[in-house]
Amino acid sequence: MARPAPAPELTCLELRGKPYAMGLAHGEELRPAIQQLCEERVDLTIAWAARRGRQLCADELLGAMEPFLVAHQRYAPAVWDELEGIAAGAAVSLEALLIGNGYTDIRDTTVYGVAAPGHCTTFSALGEATADGEVYVGQTWDMDLAMLPHVIACRRRPTDGPETLAVTTAGCLSLIGVNEHGLAVGNSNVTPRDARPGVMYLALIHQALAQADLAAATGAIAEAERASGHHYYLADARNAVHLEVTATRVAELPRDGVCHTQSNDYRHPSLADLAVPPLPGGRSVERRCRLAEELAARGPLTVEAMQASLEAEGVRVDPPVDRVVSCAAAVLHPAGRRMWVTHGPPRPGHWHGLAL
User: Fold this and answer.
1) pLDDT given for residue 293 in this prediction
2) Rounded to an integer, what distance in angstroms lies between the CA atom of residue 183 and that of residue 207?
3) Which of 110, 129, 163 is the last residue of a domain?
4) Are 168 and 230 within one domain?
5) Is the pLDDT assigned to residue 142 strictly greater than 90?
6) Does residue 95 sit in the same domain as residue 140?
7) What is the pLDDT of residues 234-282, one digit of tens each?
8) pTM check: above 0.90
């Protein structure tokens, strides 16, 4: 019998200091990868708009980033400083770096009201559903195949603020992470009709992870001048909150039960008039219902059971459909300040354990 393929390596950056210094070190260490990622995402955005009838050149797209940059400067000085450091270290423009970080939000503003391929599926499991009585959250992160080589983990030890651990991509802020206060945050993409220049989702997650409690983390997202829509899950040792947001509205989803799953369709009635239906090929409702069934069948849930549930979901988008693949997956334990991550589609034996 052939041996299973070894787990893909996962680079883990270790950053410390003030935000600009952490960003500068990040940019310098991963300069070629960051330059490539930014170039790829600029190209992807231009191609996305062209397929939907809008012709953009790179200069026009980069020039449109000015109001986004202003919104980020207003939102959180520490996040802005770190972005400036990354750009300086990687020798890329802030405009290109913003597109590299906030691709899906920027894409939503180039052609309004058009759904995009996406397959991220998320869950939260309260203590009543887990074998150890603790809260866990997790997801697959499904994105264009071009992002697969760029997946990294990043441990940040800022001079002022909590230590954080996140999975993300080269040159980018936090995507899925946990902090030293036992807060965990992640997301899946949804498409609203009110996208606008504003703060992109990775900056929101980064700022949420800089908070000391669940209420403050939720406020960092709910009260922001957001660029577009996402589903965010936020959890601490006792509870998990699911927010659905558009650029201009926020709604907290009622839980389905002790296990809650979410994918790429808006569910809250108050957001229905702003919701762009997901593409049929993405099977959003089917995926979240299927993950709920996987989790229910494996309860009481252990970490291994949650990983297996994501493995059953993740392999359904491997090989790629519309170039979308599970670039990463994660199970997070807020109280334990730890996470298990895959680089690439989740598979048995491919999980990397990381802890603060």
Assistant:
1) 97
2) 12
3) 110
4) yes
5) yes
6) no
7) 999 999 999 999 999 999 999 999 999 999 999 999 999 999 988 776 7
8) yes
Strands (E), the chain: 12-17, 121-125, 136-144, 151-158, 164-169, 176-179, 184-189, 230-235, 240-245, 250-252, 259-262, 324-333, 338-343, 352-355
SS3 label, residue 342 = strand
- The Cα–Cα gap between 13 and 19 comes to 14
Q: Which residues contact 181 (CB under 8 A, 6 or more apart)?
A: 162, 211, 212, 213, 236
- Whether the CB-CB separation of 202 and 175 falls below 8 Å is answered with yes
Q: What is the pLDDT of residues 171-213, one digit of tens each?
A: 999 999 999 999 999 999 999 999 999 999 999 999 999 999 9
Residue 183 sits in the same domain as residue 330: yes
Domain presence at residue 345: yes
Q: For residue 112, give Cα distances in angstroms to 218, 246, 295.
A: 27, 13, 35
Q: Looking at this protein, which amino acid is placed at residue 208?
A: A
Q: Is residue 74 part of a domain?
A: yes
Q: With contact defined as beta carbons under 8 Å apart, do 278 and 286 qualify?
A: no
What residue numbers bound the domain in which 100 lies?
A: 15-110
**Does residue 144 lie in a domain region?**
yes
Residue where the block lists tokens 């577009």: 228
Q: How confident is the model at residue 2 (pLDDT cuts 50, 70, 90)?
A: low
Taking the mean position of all CA atoms in its chain, how far away is CA 175? 4
